[in-house]
Amino acid sequence: MSNTPKKYAVVGNPISHSLSPKIHQSFADQFNLKIQYGKIEIKPLEFSRVIKELIDEGYIGLNVTLPFKVEAFKICDHLSQRAKYSKSVNTLTIRGNKIYGDTTDGPGLVKDLINRDVILRDKVLLLIGAGGAAQAVMYDLIQKKPTIIYLTNRTLSKSCDMAKYWQSHADENKVKLEILPPKEFPNFNLIINATSAGLIDNSSPVSSLIQGDHWYDMMYGKSTPFLNQSFEQGASKASGGLGMLIEQAAASFFIWHKLKPETKLIYKELT
Ligand code: NDP
């Protein structure tokens, strides 16, 4: 058997900030696995060509981040059910000459919420945002059977499209989908920020009237305006998206290596 480390990478644009190489290396170390995990920036419009080149160079697993998750979905020969529903792929596995696509954003979010003792079943959720990240977590949020998921977004028509798209999956799981603002403003058990508001300015995507038990910002790496607002509103619990990032990486690691890494150590190291 060859001793050459197997080749993996995260691809996106920009990519220099990515924590994925560090996270995957730390997982591999737990099992004494020798891997090579890099980060590769791909120019807009060059995604499928570069992926083909990487496959020719011997890469067997690729994580995909902004802005290529939909393009990754389109180039796969086989898709998991979750990826099919979500129309988003963040984990490519190359076997033979075929590309297998999956998305681990939803499982990553849900696992991080479980780690934080956040219960979803029979609860009232608000999901803010209708971009790639919001779409990618809907499948798993619905599977956890909250009573109702309210959807809202700066461009509200996108939330309406999202509700229409997910309606049948929600019906199968007896979950109600509603667009905010509702007539009576509810008190949410969980508010999830899946927007990029605050990334370049200091804005929060919600009004000051909102009430929630747990506030969860998918953004990570700094004190976000959304989390600052949660403290001002007296939220009892609030968390950023680092745990989700680590858990989605753990789920990708499992797809490739069939091994479940411990995630607490790297979480501590990165906070
Ligand atoms: P997209 O570009 O696909 O979507 C951006 C969303 O943010 C849209 O709903 C957009 O609304 C909204 N938005 C942008 N600016 C503002 C603003 N100033 N006020 C209100 N709403 C705004 O991005 P993604 O969905 O891929 O990513 C969203 C966030 O989730 C990012 O911060 C990303 O880092 C994070 N993320 C975290 C992950 C993790 O593992 N922790 C995984 C994936 C994403 P509109 O439709 O009106 O433009």
Helix fraction by DSSP (H/I, runs of at least 4): 25-40%
Order of helices and strands: EHEHEHEHEEHEHEHEEEHEHH
As laid out across the biggest beta sheet, the strand order is 2-1-3-5-6-4
Q: Mean pLDDT across all residues, rounded? A: 94
| CATH topology description of the largest domain | Rossmann fold
Give the low-confidence spans.
Answer: none
Q: What would CATH call the architecture of the largest domain?
A: 3-Layer(aba) Sandwich
Helix tally equals 10
Alpha-beta classification:
alpha/beta
Separation of the first and last Cα atoms: 38 Å
Instruction: Count the domains.
Output: 2
Instruction: Please provide the count of β strands.
Output: 12
Spell out the CATH superfamily of the largest domain: NAD(P)-binding Rossmann-like Domain
Specify the overall morphology: globular
Question: Could you tell me which ligands this complex binds, including any ions or cofactors?
Answer: NADPH dihydro-nicotinamide-adenine-dinucleotide phosphate
**Beta-strand residue fraction:** 15-25%
Task: Give the oligomeric state of the chains in this entry, treating copies of one chain as homo and distinct chains as hetero.
Answer: single chain
Biggest beta sheet summary: 6 strands, mixed
**Given this structure, which CATH class of the largest domain is correct?**
Alpha Beta
Q: State Rg.
A: 19 Å
What's the short version?
The chain has 271 residues and is α/β, with parallel strands linked by helices. The protein has helices at 20-30, 47-56, 69-75, 81-86, 105-115, 132-143, 156-172, 225-232, 242-257, 264-270, and strands at residues 6-12, 35-41, 59-64, 78-79, 91-95, 98-102, 124-128, 148-152, 176-179, 188-193, 212-217, 237-239.
